[in-house]
Amino acid sequence: MKRLLLLLSWLPVLAWAQPTSATADFDFALYLVGSGFKEDAATLLRHYRPDGDSISFVKGYVLYSNHQLDSAVHYLSSVGSQSQLFAEARFYGALSAAHDNRYHDAAQLLQPLRQTDDPAVRNLYHFEQAGIGLLQRDLRCFDSCYALLQPDDFRIASEAAALAQLRAGLPHKNKSPWVAAGLSAVVPGLGKVYAGRPGEGVSAFLIVGSLMAATAENAYKEGWTNWKTLLFGSLSTVFYLGNIYGSAVSVRVGMDDRNNQTDVQILYHIHIPLRNSYRR
Fold first, then answer.
1. Which of 128, 147, 207, 255 has a CA 20 to 30 Å removed from the CA of 28?
2. What's phi and psi for 254, nearest 5 deg?
């Protein structure tokens, strides 16, 4: 119902703007994106060919909003340097590439803005390059770009401080998978606790410990050749070795999760100044 009312409210506007229907469609598409109707915006623009800077930009922006990053980069990077949308297209194109882990492409898309005469664009350029450097864990690149920022720029002030705080925590003090494996070899589950998963550690200790206890009890009562002893012994070995391997994997997964969380925060802080600069 909300979508229907929204579309009906725009019918008079589209009818009045019939001679310039493309412009009306582009404005409406941006309005739909801002209102959360991203799929509708994409459907509205689907019949347009990318034969103009405005069309390429709006298509690229809608695709970026829909997380269709590869296509977004394609359209946004095709906006000509003489267009008023060129800088904005490059910033969003670079951000799309960064979301897609194409950090080199992101940096290359920003390069034409390096020598701009517009101080606002230049400051935003240094800010986004600093963020891309942080995504690459290139702390030298981040520091050099960050030093060029104008701190009184209200668009980036708080987000620049947030990036600096994230930079202070890099590189992460990662735990060793070998230490985790060694600890679990000595005490089953201890490596999981070391990896920051105490619940899994306790579970591993109880399972392996119970199986080992059952093996020892059956060996004492029935002998080592009894089928129950062999069964519990085999299960003990499997779970014991699995506990060692799982502890090492837990450390690696934890490292990946931490890096991914940091990347999400960096990308978020890069996006905010673009939204502040270009109200879409």
1. 128
2. -60, -40
How is 170-216 classified by DSSP, letter by letter? Answer: -S--PPPHHHHHHHHHHSTTHHHHHTT-HHHHHHHHHHHHHHHHHHH
CB 105 within 8 A of CB 73: yes
Nearest-angstrom CA–CA distance, 204 and 207: 5
CA-CA distance, 42 to 276, in Å (whole number)? Answer: 23
Amino acid at 248: A
Q: Output the pLDDT for position 105.
A: 95
pLDDT confidence bin for 134, thresholds 50/70/90: very high
CA distance 212 to 190: 16
Domain 2-171: top CATH class: mainly alpha
Q: What share of the chain is helix, strand, coil (3-state, %, to 5)?
A: 75, 0, 25
What is the pTM assigned to this prediction?
0.74
Measured distance CA(91)–CA(129) in Å, rounded: 10
